[in-house]
Design goal:
Strand content: under 5%
Number of domains: 1
Shape: globular
Helix content: 55-70%
Radius of gyration: 15 Å
Number of strands: 0
Structural class: mainly alpha
Amino acid sequence: MPPQRPMRAPLPAGRGPLSRVSPSLAFLVVVAVFATGVLVRGAVGAGLLFLLAAGVVTLLAGTWRVLSAGQRAGRALVLALLVGIAFSVL
């Protein structure tokens, strides 16, 4: 297991496709897609929420090995809640 970095330490710069996306913009897009999915309901709303869940799975898979057990559990809980909400809007 890699050593844990201090929580207040600055994050290293990434080189992936999301490194050029503003965190504020990413947050606003996720909130907008989630709200639209919940408000639209039906198959379209559930589809939007499942699309968000697929994004969470992708990000979780990419970061799994560097997360602590508690962080993994928290992210898995968020994913389970998102999938549960997606099923509830069907």
